[in-house]
Amino acid sequence: SLSGRFFLLTIIFVMLAEVFLFVPSVARFRESYLLARLERAQIASLALLADDMISPELEQELLTNAGVFNVVLRRDAVRQLMLSSEIPGMISATYDLQSPSFLELIRDATLRFLDTEDRVIRVIGAPLRDAGLLIEITTDTGSLRDAMIAYGVRMLVLSMIISGFTAILLLASVRVLSLIHISEPTRPRLSSYAVFCL
Predict the structure, then answer these.
(1) What is the distance between the alpha carbons of residues 187 and 198, in angstroms, rounded to a whole number?
(2) Which pLDDT tens digit goes with each residue over 144-163?
(3) Which sign, positive or negative, has the C-alpha torsion 163, 169, 172, 178?
C-alpha cells in the first residue's frame, strides 16, 4: 500500500542519515576511549611519584586498573618509565592524540574496526593539568575494538528506534491531514489571482 511504502521509505532515509553519522561518531568514541586510558595511566603514575618504591603487586594492580602495559612520562625533557609490565607482543602502531586531524581519526577508527587481530599499540598524549610534557602508554586493541563494536550496536539500535518512531509520526500526520482534507465541505474557492489581490 501507499502508506506502507511511505513508512519504509522514511525508515530507509533516516537510517541512511545515521550511516553518514556513524563513522565520525565511532571515531570520536575511539579518541575518547584512548584519552581515558591516558588519564587513568597518569593517575596510576601518581602513586610512584608519591612513593619511589612500590611493590610489584601494587604496580601490576595499577597497570591493570588503568588498562595499559606501561606508562612513560616525559617531564623537563627527561623521558621516565613510570610503570611497566611485560608487553605481550611487538608494538604495531603509534598514535599521537595531541592534535589529530578529523580525517586521521576516521581512518584509524575504520582500520581498527576492520582489524580483528589483537595488537599492541603506543598512544601519546598531553598530560592533564600540565603535569609534564608528554605521556605515553602501550595498550591492547582487543578491548578497544570490543568497546567500539558495543558502541556501534547501541547506535544501531537507537537509530532503528528513532527511524521507526519518526516513520510512525509522519504516517499518522499524513493520514490525519488526508482525513481533514476529505472531510472539508466543498465551497467555492478564490482564484490565485484574487487571493494575491486580497
Answers:
(1) 18
(2) 999 999 998 888 888 778 77
(3) negative
Distance CA 139, CA 145 (A): 12
Name the nearest CA neighbour of 162 among 2, 15, 37.
15
pTM, whole model, 2 decimals?
0.74
Q: Is 139 exposed, middle or buried (0-12, 13-18, 19+ CB in 10 A)?
A: buried
Question: What residue has cell string 586531524?
Answer: 101
Characterize 23-43 residue by residue with b for buried, 16 or more Cβ atoms within 10 angstroms of its Cβ, and e for exposed.
beebbebbbebbeebbebbbe
pLDDT band, very low/low/confident/very high, at 49 (cuts 50, 70, 90): low
* Rounded Cα–Cα distance for residues 36 and 5 (Å): 45
Half-sphere exposure of 152 (CA within 13 A, CB side): 18
